[in-house]
Specification:
The strands form three sheets. Strands 1, 2, 3, 4, 5, 6, 9, 10, 13 and 14 form a ten-stranded mixed beta sheet that branches. Strands 7-8 form a two-stranded antiparallel sheet. It has 241 residues and is of the alpha+beta class. It starts with 10 loop residues before the first helix and ends with a helix. It contains five helices and 14 strands. A hairpin with a 5-residue loop joins strand 13 (207-215) and strand 14 (221-225). The longest helix is centred in the middle third of the chain and has 12 residues, at 84-95.
Amino acid sequence: MADRSPVFLSDDEIAAVRSWVVHEDPHVLVLDKPAGLSSQGGRIKAHTLDDLLWAFMRSNGKRPELVHRLDRDTSGVILAAKTKPAAGFLGKALQMRRFRKTYLALVSAAPEPRAGMIDAPLVRQEIGRESYMRVCAFDTPGAQGSQSRYRTLSASDDGALVELEPLTGRMHQLRVHMAHIGRPLVGDPRYGGALTFAGRAAPRLMLHAAKLIFPHPEGGDRTAEAPLPGDFAALKAAAGL
């Protein structure tokens, strides 16, 4: 696994990341990532989730490796491999689209129709130091085929709670696809989302990775889930959803 030098973590950081564990076995580690924490890299000089995985370092100096990523302001389920064979197995499974990811999001009004498939290619753009995705024609240079399913779970005069399932794994895919159908996610100004919801300020991107179904190295599938965090649940309740 990782050959990098261990990162020094405070006792509080170690306690925090260990409190996020929703499943652990000899092969995998599943965490409930809080919003505001980068998965990897980034320009902010603060520990990322990748750094915090040193809290699980084994006696041989190895530690878990992230299998996939979540945007910094997205909360919820994220998977790490604890061994090199598990990392190889899960990496291949991800490439073969064997993962099934379910997200919850808030939008300012229910989509029309209330459920459907979005099949819209995406292309990456660099604007200054920021990376964006935009919907494009299928023959645009650099275009990546992208498909997402959406379903409205509840709606009120203040907005709607939607369930989202990305069938491909493009950067910002769900955010751009929902903006493409005129329903950008609440708290996502990058793609046109409102900064208020049900008369309250949206503290961040209202997107939560609620469930992950993945093939396990020992065989069969495993399901991991993360409950709605407090900020999301509060806005949802304010809208009567």
